[in-house]
Specification:
The structure is a single chain. The chain is an alpha+beta fold and 225 residues long. It has a single domain, classed as Gcn5-related N-acetyltransferase (GNAT) (Aminopeptidase). Helices cover 32% and strands 26% of the residues. The protein has 7 helices and 10 strands. The chain has helices spanning 28-35, 45-48, 54-66, 129-144, 159-168, 188-198, 215-224, and strands at 5-11, 18-21, 73-79, 96-106, 111-114, 117-118, 149-155, 174-176, 181-187, 205-211. Strands 1, 2, 3, 4, 5, 6, 7, 8, 9 and 10 form a 10-stranded mixed sheet that branches. A hairpin with a 4-residue loop joins strand 8 and strand 9. Helix 1 packs across helix 3 (54-66). The protein is globular and about 45 Å long. The two termini are 29 Å apart. Residues 17-167 form the N-acetyltransferase domain. GO terms for molecular function: acyltransferase activity, transferring groups other than amino-acyl groups. This is N-acetyltransferase domain-containing protein.
């Protein structure tokens, strides 16, 4: 079994407004708020039918951390301090503005499935932050993890996601009538072309990967009792 690892990914661009990292237990409040926001889960029926609480998300964060790099790499989106994010080492409960990452992921097969969800606040949506988050995912997935393909699956009714992939990234999807969903496949070659076309504005990231400490599971369980 591979060793799980925790991740922090930052763009080198001076224009960067966000970075991505593995979830912390202090993220639980914001995760629960997104999971219960009708706008955030509008096109995610499996979340609409779920009971999402701080308690359930505490367990979810524990699983995401323990399985990071094995079954998936769940990442939260955080504003950089100069754009309203947490200052210094202090991490506020509402520090995260969204979720992203890869789930599932198969590092041996060099494939992963990606997605993105942002808070519904007008100060967050419609500002190009989803594009920025996905570009960071692409740079991390293709340039650091060595993935060859990254998939997106989205419901037919999820026009915002389809428009994001089609209009902002120029992708063409395949529609599955039986499932009523679209599948978009991004390749390493596509990313190389996008990076080449961007020139000096191409997205380059620095990724810090830290081996997961299995001892934190016992500590977390002790605190919860």
């Amino acid at each position: 079994m591979s060793q799980p690892f925790l991740v922090s990914v930052r763009s080198r661009s001076p224009k960067a407004r966000i970075f991505l990292r593995s979830p912390l237990y202090t993220d639980v409040n914001s995760l629960t708020a997104r999971g219960n926001d009708p706008i955030c889960i509008q096109y995610l029926p499996w979340l609409q039918n779920a009971t999402i609480t701080n308690e359930s998300n505490m367990k979810q964060v524990k699983n995401w951390r323990a399985e990071s790099g094995i079954k998936g790499i769940f990442l939260v989106i955080v504003l950089l301090p100069e754009h309203g994010g947490p200052q210094g080492i202090s991490i506020a409960d509402d520090a995260t503005i969204g979720d992203s990452g890869f789930g599932p992921i198969d590092l041996k097969a060099k494939t992963g499935e990606c997605g993105v969800m942002l808070n519904s606040a007008p100060s967050i949506r419609g500002k190009g932050l989803a594009v920025e988050a996905l570009d960071i995912n692409f740079a991390y997935g293709f340039d650091h993890l060595g993935l060859e393909t990254i998939d997106f699956g989205t419901d037919n009714n999820n026009l915002p996601m389809r428009r994001l992939l089609e209009r902002k990234f120029g992708l063409s999807g395949t529609f599955n009538e039986e499932k009523g969903s679209w599948r978009f496949v991004v390749t390493k070659e596509w990313w190389a072309e996008r990076s080449k076309a961007a020139g000096e504005d191409r997205v380059v990231v620095d990724a810090e990967e830290i081996p997961f400490d299995a001892g934190e599971l016992t500590e977390t369980e002790t605190k919860a009792t």
